[in-house]
């Protein structure tokens, strides 16, 4: 609570991070981690033929280059920007959690930075020197090495970040013994890495397959040879991704799995669960089917089907990331910090003194009869706004209470009763961290929202900075 609170009251803060993060994860896995080794493999195929069959060697080389071109364009623009964007948006929305993560992972993050810069330099080298380093075998050999290094560094960046992601899900022994190693080697880390690595490789292979189908339309003989190697790649990694998914699922702590059916598609869609499992099976089946098709019948394999399989896998991956984020709730860092940015160990203090007293950017530190609404709004901002909007498109407070208590004026006792119990009612919500007076104020504010729905702004619009005079009504404060 040392930070002013950024808040988007229409799409919600979670959606902001989710959009950037999912876009990044898909680009990173498919085009950097997964596709770079495929490009390197294709280049090596050509390299090996340079002496014996220069004509065919050139075909491999040209194909590898054209595939790299697509990856280069996207990873160095949207890929790199969203990569930085994740941490930027996450620090805006939940600075306390990022601050804690930096304390635990400082060394790893520093290494990550070095590796990331190396990766960017390597991809620039790899792409921009492709045409230059071609004059003789020795030069080409050097260039091939860039590809291998690039593949390795792309994987390392992912491997470091995955540790942080899995730490957030399950801190494991770190909660007893707060050392870096316990944090880094948390229980979900390796299973998640064993899942993401083959998933990335499969996605990279599928993209290469799709592009090859497009680029070799006029050379069906070569298409046959090229598709065979690429589909072999997919056929090796695809089943490993399925196995990794199972291992990962098995390693997720039981309490997290308890949230899973809800996570799959929010409350209303709990019964989507079975449908989603079907989509998983269809997507994986389609990928493996497509790889088989292009292995055994490369001449007739349709590009559109490869495209559809890619879209399905991308959709699935987006869903998986959303799920990973959801099942972690009510924590942002497993059993250490709740998603509202408050540490579990601070709860007794906050519940005694109130959250306002310990917050720096609030209009007043205490609830009085005169400031009920304004204090209630600040309590809402501090305790609910990381996950709820007041009346926006995503998870709106008014909508949730209307679903529960209908449209007639809500009773304070109803609201209080629910919020006091919200963690037991819905495990994925943290317990209410404030004191009783603050709960009264929050209920007054929620009741005001029912009759007079007003969007609430975040620190970016001055909330918490422009301290209002006590007599000023909430609406005027903005
Ligand atoms: C960690 C994130 C998080 C926090 C913090 C949080 N909620 Fe929620 N809340 C959710 C999610 C997720 C849902 C379920 C949304 C859906 O319907 O899919 C939910 C649902 C609800 C519901 C509807 C429950 C039901 O059974 O239908 C109410 C009421 C609610 N929240 C009130 C609050 C209040 C009041 C606060 C602040 C004191 C709060 N929440 C804080 C995440 C959170």
TrEMBL record:
<feature type="transmembrane region" description="Helical">
    <location>
        <begin position="272"/>
        <end position="291"/>
    </location>
</feature>
<keyword id="KW-1133">Transmembrane helix</keyword>
<keyword id="KW-0479">Metal-binding</keyword>
<feature type="region of interest" description="Disordered">
    <location>
        <begin position="456"/>
        <end position="478"/>
    </location>
</feature>
<feature type="transmembrane region" description="Helical">
    <location>
        <begin position="303"/>
        <end position="320"/>
    </location>
</feature>
<dbReference type="GO" id="GO:0009055">
    <property type="term" value="F:electron transfer activity"/>
</dbReference>
<feature type="transmembrane region" description="Helical">
    <location>
        <begin position="15"/>
        <end position="42"/>
    </location>
</feature>
<dbReference type="GO" id="GO:0020037">
    <property type="term" value="F:heme binding"/>
</dbReference>
<feature type="transmembrane region" description="Helical">
    <location>
        <begin position="148"/>
        <end position="169"/>
    </location>
</feature>
<dbReference type="InterPro" id="IPR036909">
    <property type="entry name" value="Cyt_c-like_dom_sf"/>
</dbReference>
<protein>
    <submittedName>
        <fullName>Mono/diheme cytochrome c family protein</fullName>
    </submittedName>
</protein>
<dbReference type="InterPro" id="IPR009056">
    <property type="entry name" value="Cyt_c-like_dom"/>
</dbReference>
<feature type="domain" description="Cytochrome c">
    <location>
        <begin position="371"/>
        <end position="450"/>
    </location>
</feature>
<keyword id="KW-0812">Transmembrane</keyword>
<keyword id="KW-0408">Iron</keyword>
<keyword id="KW-0349">Heme</keyword>
<feature type="transmembrane region" description="Helical">
    <location>
        <begin position="234"/>
        <end position="252"/>
    </location>
</feature>
<feature type="transmembrane region" description="Helical">
    <location>
        <begin position="108"/>
        <end position="128"/>
    </location>
</feature>
<dbReference type="Pfam" id="PF13442">
    <property type="entry name" value="Cytochrome_CBB3"/>
</dbReference>
<feature type="transmembrane region" description="Helical">
    <location>
        <begin position="63"/>
        <end position="88"/>
    </location>
</feature>
<dbReference type="GO" id="GO:0046872">
    <property type="term" value="F:metal ion binding"/>
</dbReference>
<keyword id="KW-0472">Membrane</keyword>
<feature type="transmembrane region" description="Helical">
    <location>
        <begin position="189"/>
        <end position="214"/>
    </location>
</feature>
